[in-house]
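Lecture notes, unit on protein representations.

Consider one protein chain, 633 amino acids long.
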Amino acid sequence: KNCMIGIHFLMIIAVLGVFVVGTMNHSTDIIDGGVLIALFAVSEWLESKTLATARNSLEAVMALRPDAADVVGVGLVPVEDVHVGDVVAIRPGDKIPVDGVVVKGTSVVNESSLTGEARGVEKGEGSQVYAGTVNTSSYLQVVATKESADSTVAKLGDFIESCSMHKSSTEKMVESIARYYTPLILLLALSVAGAAFIPAVAPSVSERNRYIKLACNLLVAGCPCALVLSTPATMVSGLAAAANNGALIKGGQYLEVLGSMKHLAFDKTGTLTEGKYRVNGIAMAKGKSEDDLLYWLASVESQSSHPIAWAITKLAKEKGIKIADQITNYTTLAGEGVRATVQGSEVVVGNIKVAARNGWSSSEVSSLRAQYESWERQGFTVCWVGVEGQALGVFSVADMVRPGTKALVTKLVKSRVKCWILTGDNEGAALKVASKLRLRADRVKSSLTPEDKYWHVSSLKEEEEAAGRCFKASGKVGMVGDGVNDAPALAGADVGIAMGAAGTPVAMETADVVLFSDNLQKLTDTISLAKLCRRKILENILISIAIKASIIVLIFLYEDFSIVYNILSDVGGALLVITNGLSVMWSWKSVKRSLMALTGGGKDAECSAKRKDKTLNKASCGGGGCCGGGGGS
């Protein structure tokens, strides 16, 4: 197949050679040939069963897709027949069949099948729910917002199915070595066997048989089973462990890059910070009122999903300010802000670039500029608001650094990963976050457009390439963002990481690594897992080479070296590297259980450990069942 000499071809020749020698000498060598066949068959079976353990773990994630749904007024139908707008009934213990929004009832939903977090999430009317998660406590009615094939869990299954086929650079390198190693050993074995028929080299029958046995031993030694399996066994285990921990890694190459990163750039808003802004202050131009500013501002921001927009519309609602009925021509100004036509008037909201472009630096608005600069120095995010080309006022908002961010950055720095902040926010706000994380000021780049972020990521990659590193796997650049505004930078990095991407199609398509939770611990876990996989791969390669080298030396040192020992070393080596690779998955489950126990997730952790047990009594996990994994997000 693929014009390559395979292990089966080598084994056939080796067995035939052993049988020939045994038949000619009427010796026990013929028994060795039978043992060789038996051991090879057993090794093939053991290898397939052991590798199936990791593949089954991936298939368990793919099996999260529900099969049927109870549509209100229709009854039980295949999930493929549920369409956008249909209302689905979901009882306690049922798996949610579609992505949608709760329209009736309140309950706690177990989202660990997506996020890997052992905590239930409360859901009420208006809350978003995802297919494949489990309703654990009360009756819900959910209106479908996506077709079954477009649901988050369906996309997850599709990506997992394809990601295991993407090979890492190390795996490709090992396969290239094996491609040439095996033919070279075959040529060496044929040369040794040919020497047996040269009278000057093998003058006696016993000498001829010794050369033939040596050739057969070389053929068995030429089977690079352990070397070829050293990387895929670990990669499949790593991908499965990541998927079960709420991280989708789209192939072994990205898992490998994660383990060898030298630079990791972060977007600020919603990544390093919670993205839950609160309005800090509002300053109006002379003769303008705060209610007037909030009317225009909230009307524009009602069209946006940015965290600042949520803070503004919330404040307007609290103050009883109604949003305009007619809002058109909403446009995002890359790296500046937004613009829209409200009741026939053009309204613009943005940063200092908007003010400069509109000439809002005259003495008439000097007080607004002074307030803008004052808030910016204090580290707030500040924006201008203008109507029909005239400055109406400025406002500032504050955000909180996400819990666990400082610990993540500290751990990365200790691992010799350089951390960067790339943000479209102002310098003051960016430096304020950097100071809390103890990041150097020269690693902070502010007031960036999406294209600027891409340029900075590309510059880091060029810097690493120019360094002339010895190993291709080192010096990689990662980018962490939301997968939407940071799409160019995510695509430009060696590995793009999107956080909190459940239900975000753009993030799932653009990023190379998708974290379904906003919990930064998941990013820490995923990077640690990648480093563990990289170490295991190196161990496996060294083990494989050491075993083969030792066997070849022993073959030439001891002329009576049994071919049975040879095949046993081959089988043992293959099983050793597979087991070492699978230990990534096993040890990771152990680590997760320990973390859950330390954080008080005992009962939920127990449910998570039993999630494959489809006969588990619902009452054993708080009445909700464990079919999709214990606990929730």
